[in-house]
Amino acid sequence: MSLRYVLLGLLSDRPASGYDLVQRFKVSLATVWPATQSQIYTELTKLADAGSIAVSDEGPRGRKEYTITDVGLADLREWLTTTKPKRPARNEVLLRVFFLGVVPPAYARDYLSDIETASTKDLAELAALEASIDWDDDDLSVYGRIVMEWGKRFHVMKREWAEWALTQIPER
């Protein structure tokens, strides 16, 4: 997936400046699709050059507010309806678990405990984020809550899996 579709999706909800988009990333998409400020601004320039977004307002200090164009909305809709998401092909966490037999069991336990701890922390961060959002019934809130629920369930599963995996390490 490309950052372009993330930005087009956010702009399909309402116009925003680059700064606004960076902030919206922090509270809505950072756990799903992280991006740096420089990546966002670079992609905004590309989208504007391609005619997918347009500057709808300019403010002090060069602040630009962007709006999605008909071209950009058509591109977003095509991506949503005609492309299939790519299945993540690599998982370094599980690759390492696969080979934990070559290290002492104490290290394997520490590694799995770290996964359990991180999952618990990630779950708490999602709960805090969820509580901080002023949810309403617009599309981004409705579908954002659906994504939030996936994240919560994922971290619960990962924590429970790590707890189980810890019981599977043989004493040697």
In the CATH scheme, the class of the largest domain would be Mainly Alpha
Q: What's the end-to-end separation, in Å?
A: 44 Å
Beta content comes to 5-15%
The biggest sheet, with number of strands, parallel, antiparallel or mixed sense and barrel status, is: 3 strands, antiparallel
SSE sequence, one letter per element? HEHHEEHHHH
Instruction: Give the full name of the CATH homologous superfamily of the largest domain.
Output: Winged helix-like DNA-binding domain superfamily/Winged helix DNA-binding domain
Q: Categorize the overall geometry.
A: elongated
Count of all domains: 2
Radius of gyration: 20 Å
* Count of distinct strands: 3
Q: Are there runs of 5+ residues with pLDDT below 50, and where?
A: none
Mean pLDDT figure: 90
Strand order of the largest sheet: 1-3-2
Going by CATH, the architecture of the largest domain would be: Orthogonal Bundle
CATH topology of the largest domain: Arc Repressor Mutant, subunit A
